[in-house]
From TrEMBL:
EC number: 3.6.1.-
Alphabetical list of SUPFAM superfamilies matching this protein: Nucleic acid-binding proteins, P-loop containing nucleoside triphosphate hydrolases
Role, per record: One of several proteins that assist in the late maturation steps of the functional core of the 30S ribosomal subunit. Helps release RbfA from mature subunits. May play a role in the assembly of ribosomal proteins into the subunit. Circularly permuted GTPase that catalyzes slow GTP hydrolysis, GTPase activity is stimulated by the 30S ribosomal subunit.
Protein's recorded name: Small ribosomal subunit biogenesis GTPase RsgA
Secretion signal, residue range per the UniProt entry: none
Organism: Lysinibacillus telephonicus
Gene: rsgA
Residues that, per the record, bind Zn(2+): 247, 252, 254, 260
Record text on cofactor binding: Binds 1 zinc ion per subunit.
Length: 293
């Protein structure tokens, strides 16, 4: 029995990487019986059958797993957001950040189309950039024909398994083409009437890039809070989590409770009003969710 990592899944086969080679494997029927499904990114035990074929015998416990794209054991997501066309949107950014935090995936915010900003717009955006950096988020700014991008991403991607996330039309495919020129993913102009781009979905595959692994898929484009409970939402806002130790009540939801450190910080300007508004909106969404049985 050998151990390897699933790097690609295609037409019912799993391609397991070990020591520089890919072994085409089938999954055992027992996985189906248990309702388990091997995912790209899984660490697995497999037995070889012949030179380049095998059978997956066991799945190792996962650090995390995503549904769209179906992938496991992700370290970080390059969260691609354009600053124009489509416009920079803090509520959408916070929605993505919250879901990534809930999966324990580190977000790296990648702002595209910086060259389209006027000086005045740049000053306004800089306020947001400074605020997100103060929370602890890493931010990369990119421009058209950005020749330094690969160099700047190298230390970030090294030794990590990364995936791209962001809505359509923000430049995910362009970013992938920079990192993996051999892919040449088809990029399309923004559809003016819809205000969003179009792309074709491909199978999920982990490809070696910058001494790390990157999922060569344009990523996921929408997030909901199906897997987040109301008590967990605070931990998905890093600045709230730090402050909540000072709340009078354990499990404080920072809405009506007295002596709430988060609401105090809102008064002093330590918590940004738009972040608190988004927190309230997301909490209401979770509370309004129909119960699952």
């Amino acid at each position: 029995m050998a151990q390897g990592q699933i790097r690609k899944a295609l037409s019912g086969y799993y391609y397991v990487y070990q020591d520089g080679e890919l072994i085409q494997c089938r999954g055992r029927g027992v996985f189906r019986n248990r309702g388990e499904s091997p995912l790209v990114g899984d660490i697995v035990d497999y037995t070889k059958e012949g030179d380049s074929d095998g059978v997956i015998m066991k799945l190792h416990p996962r650090k995390n797993e995503l549904v769209r794209p179906p992938i496991a054991n992700i370290d970080q997501a390059l969260l691609v957001f354009s600053v124009k066309e489509p416009e920079f949107n803090t509520i959408l950014l916070d929605r993505f950040l919250v879901v990534l935090e809930s999966f324990q995936v580190d977000p790296i915010i990648c702002l595209t189309k910086m060259d389209l900003l006027t000086d005045e717009e740049r000053v306004k955006l800089q306020v947001y950039i400074d605020q997100y950096k103060a929370i602890g988020y890493e931010i990369i700014e990119t421009y058209k024909n950005d020749e330094t991008l690969l160099e700047r991403l190298q230390p970030i991607l090294e030794g990590k398994t990364s995936v791209l996330a962001g809505q359509s039309g923000v430049g995910k495919s362009t970013l992938l083409n920079t990192l993996l020129p051999e892919l040449q993913l088809q990029t399309s102009d923004i559809s003016q009437s819809l205000g969003r781009g179009k792309h074709t979905t491909r199978h999920v595959e982990l490809i070696e890039v910058c001494s790390g692994l990157l999922a060569d898929t344009p990523g996921f484009s929408s997030f909901d809070f199906d897997t987040i409970e109301k008590e967990e939402l605070t931990s998905c806002f890093p600045e709230f989590e730090r402050l909540s130790e000072g709340c009078k009540f354990r499990g404080c939801l920072h809405i009506k409770e007295p002596k709430c450190a988060v609401k105090d910080a809102l008064e002093t300007g330590e918590v940004q009003p738009y972040r608190y508004e988004h927190y309230q909106q997301f909490l209401q969404e979770i509370l309004d969710r129909k119960p699952r049985y």
